Amino acid sequence: MKRFIPLREAILSAAILFLTLLVASRFPGFVAPANLANVFNDTAPLIILALGQMVVILTRCIDLSVAANLALTGMVVAMINVAIPGLPIPIILTIAVLMGAFMGAINGILVWKLSIPPIVVTLGTMTIFRGIIFLISDGKWVNSHEMSPAFTGFPRTVLLGLPALSWIAILTVVAFGIMMARTQFGRSIFAVGGNPHAAVYTGINVGKTQFWAFVVSGALAGLTGYLWVARYAVAYVDIAGGFELEVVAACVIGGISIAGGIGTVGGAVLGAIFLGVVKNALPVVDISPFWQLAISGSAILIAVAFNARSGRNKGRVILKSAEATQ
Amino acid sequence: MSVIKKLVTSVALASAMFASPTMAQEDVRIALVVKALGIGFFEAANEGAQEAAAELGNVEIIYTGPTDTTAEGQIEVINALIAQQVDAIAISSNDTDALVPALKRAMQRGITVLSWDSGVAPEGRQLHLNPSSNPLIGNMIIKLAADHLPDGGEVALLSATTTSTNQNIWMEEMNKVMGNYPGIEVVATVYGDDLADKSYREATGLMQTYPDLDAIIAPTSVGIVAAAQAVVDAGKVGQVNVTGLGLPSEMAGAIESGASKSFAIWNPIDLGYSATMLAYELSQNGAEAAPGAEIPMGRMGTLTLDENNEGAMADPFVYDAGNIDEFKSIF
């Protein structure tokens, strides 16, 4: 049973369910299907970014530049849209993904070839990316009336009852589920994070794997950049300020070990959804805004404390089951 | 050639000779120094200054400023203006303190110095012109909502952060005048932290918690744009009116979609006009800049100075579908 529903995910799912019911007891409208769909849609950018961050954290790195990458890509595609309003959305999406991947590759190269600690590299590129936004935009905003209706409309397009933004998140989750479980790249990510020395002996290039992890994270940040700017219909220097920490928090809540090697796609998604529920619930339950920050923070700490405990248990269980199968 | 004709010609010539130098001497040169050239807001202020100059007749406006928003650049500009012996300098400063020595030197040379929009420390200017005042803004934000709710209704505030000084003062001033707007009930105050995503989420939450909400007042430029987008996405255009303080360029989309009926912010044209009028009064008509003084500024009424020689120009200017197109390209 535990093989199929890992304990960590089970606890987190229960916590999300409990939280949702708690909110529903104060504000029944919260559990209406339409509202839950809204909450999921609102959480979609966080889910996408958390998956990218998960891959990076699994390889014992961290990517603090995701929010700045998102903001820069968002600003660039918004400016492209203003300059060439007729450019089709698929091309915009391609530009966003490629640009994000390129910025991720810069992080990756610095970590791989120059062996600079990832936290230092991404802290630096984070500031550089924000600075570049200021340079190209002159500090000005790109506003909703300047963007084309197709540009802002795409994430809102409803397909089979859900907006495109939600579908992109779902597709990303599915793609990552397959990638992490079934591809050589996915497995080597776990190997690199779990035991880099052993990974080298099995013929895995540790630096190169980390490089590709950053590229994946960057590409997703770029994709989210377009979605974000289109959804809120505004682009300026500070969009998604501080969002990188929320992304890391989603991963940590989801049980991705900050030391690398341990974590699941399901965990990252649940971690993001947990934060999404908290963020969407706080405005409707009429709690003093002065308490909201403290409550968000406590929720994160409690979730992490649960994870730390279940993480220890799980470690033992895996060893036993491994012995049993031999 | 008759004697008379000769006489007329020589008189005309003489008067022309006399007239031109006298005219040049009487032309009052007022320098409008801005934070940086090429910014729409200040170009609009210059437009207002030109309007004042045309009204006054004998005024020449020198519109100038550095190419980037630095105090050093403005000091160079001020030194050049001192050398040109202009009559008055009206400045929107890049630094409260750094410009004081240069502006003091200008005042010692008999040049009238006043600051507008962005102030200079009191010792570096004779007076400072604020675009508006906290009580005026506090009254305006509730008035904007109330004007569209003749039968009263529920309004909610979407502010920046819990610690934003400006927003807190404005909301406090708003609460003082709530008695003037019977039937208007403020049901909630939420904080969007000046982040587009959080403001959007808070606005969505407001509409869920208060299904009968009639207006969202956001006295912050990020919040008002995000709230307007949230209203559009919730399909509540026409039911919930988003208003508050925003910039025309950023709010044009919200006015177009109908999510916002009107909003307010200072009018840069009026600001440039008033600054020019004040500079003229101080340098030519002997108006004294002292606490309590009332100085006329043309069509904008009079400026009353407080103990710091500061004064507020007017109510924030209201923008709606009627004038947004004119202003959205300005700032």
Automatic annotation (TrEMBL), chain A:
InterPro entries according to UniProt: ABC_transp_permease
Gene Ontology CC annotation, any one: plasma membrane
Statement: the UniProt record of this protein carries the keyword Membrane: yes
Annotated membrane topology: Multi-pass membrane protein
Signal peptide: none
Superkingdom to which the source organism belongs: Bacteria
The keyword Transmembrane helix belongs to this UniProt entry's keyword annotation: yes
Name listed for the protein in its UniProt record: ABC transporter permease
UniProtKB/TrEMBL annotation, chain B:
GO MF: carbohydrate binding
Domain of life: Bacteria
Gene3D superfamilies (alphabetical): 3.40.50.2300
Pfam family, one: Peripla_BP_4
Location relative to the cell: Periplasm
Keyword vocabulary terms for this entry: Signal
Range of residues in the leader sequence: 1-24
Domain Periplasmic binding protein: 30-284
NCBIfam families linked: RhaS (TIGR02637)
Protein name: Rhamnose ABC transporter substrate-binding protein
